[in-house]
Design a protein that fits this description.
Layout: E1 23-28, E2 31-40, E3 43-46, H1 47-52, H2 75-78, H3 82-96, H4 110-116, E4 117-119, E5 123-126, E6 134-137, H5 141-152, E7 168-170, E8 176-178, E9 183-184, E10 187-190, E11 202-205, E12 209-210, E13 213-219, E14 238-245, E15 248-249, H6 250-256, E16 270-272, E17 277-278, H7 279-282, E18 286-288, E19 306-309, E20 312-318, E21 324-331, H8 339-346, E22 358-360, H9 375-378, E23 386-387, E24 393-394, E25 402-409, E26 417-427
Parallel strand pairs: 6-22, 8-16, 9-26
Antiparallel strand pairs: 1-2, 1-5, 2-3, 3-4, 6-7, 10-11, 12-15, 13-14, 13-22, 14-16, 14-17, 18-19, 20-21, 20-25, 23-24, 25-26
Length: 432
């Protein structure tokens, strides 16, 4: 489809083209109270101010619910459901369209433009949802194989259950933070020589701090306890997607994970991008994920085989010396399980999900070293240092390192659907 043209100036190559309209939470110097906004080019449209000045006068569907745009999270808006999200997004697109049928709303309303449109450089971004619970999955097959091969060899790299169900664990929702929030290196218990059976563990700053290139999906429809979400309905329960860095203390994890899985190695910080890209905006970029060579059980069988997204994902590392380079290029298509399958499996026991619950995809890696979404893979767990263009090397992250994820769909520079950035900088561990 040809790119939508706008009367509003949107830079070529912007992640936030008229084809996108992602939602987030902003505050400004003139109003410190967080509220709902959408990103358009290099600006944000303040939906609270837009609403207060009759911006939705031509959209009767949302008028009884306009108070949701004054909320400090997206939970209330998300709870209105996918059909409402869709009409609001399309309406905002029509308001910004070059040939808008509603010029009086914003195009010819310079007063409202001054009140409701702010440069992104001048807004403060906040965590988009109140996250009640967070579950991290392990759906990136290539990452699961690469990591498993290091510890169990290629034959036993994948556990016997891996291709039969979306493996996951419950993470810590309280440490999910918005892009730009510093991440403090955790202290933890680990063995300095894991191969030495009789050696005692130490408690010290993590030495194998890593990033994990993931996507996250937010739930927008609750299910009652005891009532699973059927796989054919699961997609309607997903509001949208963010990029996610599920930071990991590899040495702590290796020592603690038996028998119950990750704990302190994963609870110190998870970074998400600030703007949530709606499921509708991602729909044109759906494609088939990694082929599963086992016959999955009926409760996980999707009607549409195209259920993951063609999202080009990049990882940039900026060292404390200021040198920056791209160290990985992956894609959202490298998943064995989709978010609808994760949700259907999660609720298959009757587990109740709430609006704002977050699901992580697990690390998304391709088959080549340049596509590996973690340093665990790139450095072979520290055995092979990663050479950076600056001449610096990394086995794992050092204090002062900054990791930036970017993700974008499409090839038309006037119709990109992207996520902006997901950024975190490592600060030294606290001293006891």
């Amino acid at each position: 489809m040809p790119a939508l043209k706008s009367w509003f100036s949107i830079p070529r190559g912007s992640h936030f083209s008229l084809a996108n309209i992602p939602f987030g939470i902003i505050s400004t110097a003139s109003s410190k109270t967080p509220r709902v906004a959408v990103a358009i080019g290099d600006h944000a449209l303040d939906l609270e101010a837009f609403t207060a000045n009759n911006g939705f006068s031509a959209l009767s569907t949302i008028q009884p619910h306009q108070a949701v745009f004054s909320e400090s999270t997206l939970n209330a808006f998300a709870a209105l459901g996918r059909p409402v999200h869709s009409v609001v997004r399309k309406y905002i697109q029509s308001v910004f369209d070059r040939d808008t049928p509603y010029p009086e709303v914003l195009k010819a309303n310079s007063d409202l433009q001054k009140k409701a449109i702010f440069p992104l450089a001048e807004v403060q971004m906040h965590i988009p949802f109140q996250i009640g619970d967070y579950t991290d999955f392990f759906a990136g097959l290539h990452h699961a194989f690469h990591a498993g091969r290091q510890f169990r060899g290629p034959i036993n790299a994948l556990q016997p259950n891996y291709k039969h169900l979306p493996v996951g664990y419950h993470g810590r929702a309280s440490s999910v933070v918005v892009s730009g929030t510093p991440i403090r290196r955790p202290n933890g218990q680990y063995k300095t020589d894991p191969a030495a059976e009789d050696s005692a563990p130490v408690y010290a700053p993590c030495r194998k701090l890593d990033f994990e290139l993931e996507l996250g999906a937010f739930v927008c429809k609750p299910n009652d306890m005891g009532k699973p979400v059927p796989i054919l309905e699961a997609e309607e329960n997903i509001f949208g997607v963010v990029m996610m860095n599920d930071w990991s203390a590899r040495d702590v994890q290796q020592w603690e994970y038996v028998p119950l899985g990750p704990f302190n190695a994963k609870n110190f910080g998870t970074t998400i991008s600030a703007w949530v890209v709606l499921s509708d905006a991602l729909a044109p970029f759906k494609l088939k994920g990694i082929e599963n060579d086992v016959d999955v059980l009926p409760y996980l069988r999707e009607k549409d085989s195209k259920s993951v997204f063609d999202i080009r994902l990049n990882v940039d590392l900026k060292t404390s010396s200021g040198n920056s380079s791209t160290i990985a290029e992956s894609n959202g298509k490298y998943l064995l399980w989709s978010f609808p399958q994760m949700l259907a499996h999660h609720t298959s026991t009757g587990c109740p999900m709430q609006v704002g619950d977050l699901m992580g995809s697990g690390t998304i890696s391709g088959t080549e070293p340049t596509q590996f979404g973690s340093l665990l893979e790139q450095s072979e767990n520290g055995k092979t240092p990663v050479q950076l263009p600056s001449g610096e090397i990394r086995k794992f992250l050092e204090d002062g390192d900054e990791i930036t994820f970017t993700g974008v769909c499409g090839t038309d520079d006037e119709a990109l659907v992207g996520f902006g950035q997901c950024v975190g900088r490592i600060e030294p561990a606290p001293q006891f």
